[in-house]
Amino acid sequence: MYTDPIADFLTRIRNAAKANHKVVEIPASNLKKEITKILFDQGYILSYKFDDSSVQGTIKIALKYDKETRESVIRDIQRISKPGLRKYAGASKLPRILNGLGIAIVSTSKGLMTGKQARQLNVGGEVICYVY
Measured between alpha carbons, how far apart are the two ends of the chain, in Å? Predict the structure, then answer.
């Protein structure tokens, strides 16, 4: 039993990327599925598949690597808002990661989105994680 399933999700992706695994399998939840879709849309993962054959279901994520250097496209993935200390930011205070090279995933009233999308829609929310 783990108290922070999102941190576990991010750690599994981070560890698989560092170990040069092609695929990582993670227990599913709706929030994890949305984060996976954002990572795919932003080009950080190659593909994903939701497997709902069991009660909870799983997410299979194919990690993306650079062709020349064979390094993971995900350099780092960090949990920001934790269960013990939530981090919120208004639309004007949303962070820019590596001067726009990375993304912040934000949970807003309009759903999960990147920090850039939240700034465009002028909504703030809970900063879930940084990816770069």
Answer: 29
CA angle centred on 15, ends 12 and 82, rounded to 5°: 55
Q: List the chain domain ranges.
A: 5-63, 80-131
pLDDT of residue 53: 87
| Mean of per-residue pLDDT scores for the chain | 96
Fold adopted by 5-63: Ribosomal Protein S8; Chain: A, domain 1 (3.30.1370)
Distances (CA, A) of 120 to 22, 27, 51, 99, 115: 34, 32, 33, 17, 9
Q: Provide the total of helices (H) and of strands (E) in the chain, helices listed first.
A: 3, 8
